[in-house]
Request: fold
Amino acid sequence: MQTDTPRPMFDTDELVINMGPQHPSTHGVLRLILKLDGERVLDCDPVIGYLHRGIEKLSENRDYTQIVLLTDRMDYVAAATNNLGYVETVEKLYAIEVPRRARYIRTVLSELQRVASHLLWLGTHAADLGALTVLLFGLRERELILDLFEEYCGARLTYNSMRIGGQPVDVPPGWDKRVLAFCDIQEQKLPEYEQLLTHNRIFMERTKNIGVISGADAAALGICGPPLRASGVLRDVRKDEPYAAYDEMEFDIPLGTQGDTYDRYLVRLEEFRQSLRIIRQAVQGLPEGPIMGKVPRLIKPPAGETYHAIEAPKGELGYFIVSDGKSVSPYRFRVRPPSFCNLQALPRLVKGHLVADVIALIGTIDIVLGEVDR
Amino acid sequence: MSEGPKPAPENPDSPGSPKPEEKAAEPTPQAASPKPAADAAAPTPAAPAPKPAAAAAKPAAAPGSPKPAAPKPEAKAAPPLPPDQAPPADLPLPAYVTALQEGLPGAVEQVSYWVGDWTVIVGAARFADVCAFLRDTAGCRFDYLSDLTAVDWPARPEKRFDLVACLYSTALRHRLRVKARLADGEAVASVTGVWPAANWLEREVFDMFGVTFTGHPNLKRMLMPFDWQGHPQRKDYPLEGPGELLMESPQDWLKARQAAADADSE
Reply:
């Protein structure tokens, strides 16, 4: 156009659209109210609560052993770590000693769970960006983990796989061999994902410099888990406040430098390797001994309160439990859900990006709405 | 856990509360602590039963253990009070607590300790000041707000709610809980200016408990529908929610809700 006078244009207006609650890319019932200027996102207001079941209220009316089942239903793609966080909090409150073998089994289960959760994240994240093959690959390997869980505790999704004071069952014969075999398979498959994504031009264009956040901002916003580490903050509950048998394990914490979507991908990809490393150590060093500690038949912790956090696949999963010392159910049961706190950062991440990037950013923070809403 | 000087998991000097390990060993769980007795001496009649009777029902499971019959009705009658145990006398206060006591004199009303966790109880008016101080002071550096929640204690009607913030320092790797006691309807200054992470957490506390935060940029319900009545996490809120009416006859339920709204606005 070579004219000096600007052509008359259509009026530009801010457009407010709803993304979700039913939308294939919001990974559940998440509604985003997007304020758009053309393709660019000016503001974003997440609306949550569609899956609110009142698990906290419900737990305050169930006894301590029954709550393990409820925790399964929060982050339903990582039920084992939910169990682990809860039982460890009660054990801390009750000063129950957990046998070393049980702690090792818990470590194996929670790292298998981390791999399974990251596989699902990787698949759905890549599928959101158009790389459908990775989803099939991810589900293929996740299936092997679900088989291992099924063999261990009989369930494939909501495991109820831990008890206050130890483990309900010992590992089946030969299970350790199959876990190690899985580690080998998974190790071989990782280069396949990398081949499909890491240097994929489209994937890089869609993720590099998208949703950049600095480490200090990320910590102030309450971001936790892999997104926080991708921003360069050295924070991993497994190292900082060791639980289960992590103090006896050797592993590294991958850190990002840019704090963008691509770094969050790289961090999680490296976490696969570190998780496999932990699983191998724990399975090979599985000590002999009992799997259940000395636990009274009726669980009724003395009056007191505690907060205990673990590193769930999505970040810091904390439980705050208040016991009044008189009742068999917690007086106050509070979950600090990592997905909830990470989702809070979404408006900050999407501002100024395109609508298509919103999808990449929902994927990169790895939310499960069952946990966000509880 | 790396916070502070590492204390033993049980505190032997804590008055009245039995050692957790003793309790773990023998399954007769009734705590003969002085606290329930104190409650029984001054019962609060207005408090609604915080737990269904089933929760306090007899521990039928423990076989062969002599059941302490006496404390049971007492346990049912006395609504629980917050278990803020004093730290054992021989345990030194961590540096970040003493720094807070010196930096903001008079702000800390009480220090409590249980199974390795330190808690400071501060006045509600100074809650935000304390949080800002803890974030910015050299020895504290609590730059990470892990959690912000509340606890409802109907047995303490004059200051019904505990607002609880779980802080963590990513640099120094220690934890601290900050508590403030609030009356029903009492507003507290928002800490969204200290940690933006508090935004949704405060909204959830507002939604679930009805605690209002002044200076919050967007204080509306988080999990419940925007037109919901009541605050579900309060102890006097029924577990079943609004009841069967909603399921059986939605029209009647709507009418009842409208009537309640009209009564509210008048």
About this structure: The radius of gyration of chain A is 22 Å. Strands of chain A lie at 15-19, 31-37, 40-47, 304-312, 315-323, 332-336. The mean pLDDT of chain A is 88. Chain A touches chain B through 61 residues (CB under 8 Å).
